[in-house]
Amino acid sequence: MNKGVYIALLSIGLAQVLKIPIYFVKNKVWKPELFFQTGGMPSSHSAGVSSLTTYIALKRGMPTIDFALSLIYGLIVMYDAQGIRRQTGELTLKVNDLGELVEKIHKDESVKFEEKSPKKLKEMLGHKPEEVIGGALLGVLVGTIGYFLTKNKKH
């Protein structure tokens, strides 16, 4: 694997780790399982693509096709993370609320009704814009540090 891949994966892992203490500071609840979940601050999607794009810009230069591909791909990923995926999460919140409402209606009925309740849908799928920006900033930082730490020294 090349250094760019390592740096991007490191950035993704670091973003996932940071979600735990950030959530704790905001909510006073320690949730280590956030490491394995999508959504939240910072966006690991944004961190990964931003660190790779930054690394490519520093290593190969901005006028290269490598940088152009990474930048466009990264912008699409970040747009999707806060756009479509976020809307899916919002819709999931509504569906989960609807399930609770239906359950309340069924409890008030005199007719016996038995139904297996489906598993509650995951609500934290996408990112708020500030989570995407936070991930992007983390990615630029990790990409820059990664580039300078792995740069071949010329004598």
TrEMBL record:
<keyword id="KW-0812">Transmembrane</keyword>
<feature type="transmembrane region" description="Helical">
    <location>
        <begin position="6"/>
        <end position="25"/>
    </location>
</feature>
<dbReference type="Pfam" id="PF02681">
    <property type="entry name" value="DUF212"/>
</dbReference>
<dbReference type="InterPro" id="IPR003832">
    <property type="entry name" value="DUF212"/>
</dbReference>
<feature type="transmembrane region" description="Helical">
    <location>
        <begin position="132"/>
        <end position="150"/>
    </location>
</feature>
<protein>
    <recommendedName>
        <fullName>Acid phosphatase/vanadium-dependent haloperoxidase related protein</fullName>
    </recommendedName>
</protein>
<keyword id="KW-1133">Transmembrane helix</keyword>
<keyword id="KW-0472">Membrane</keyword>
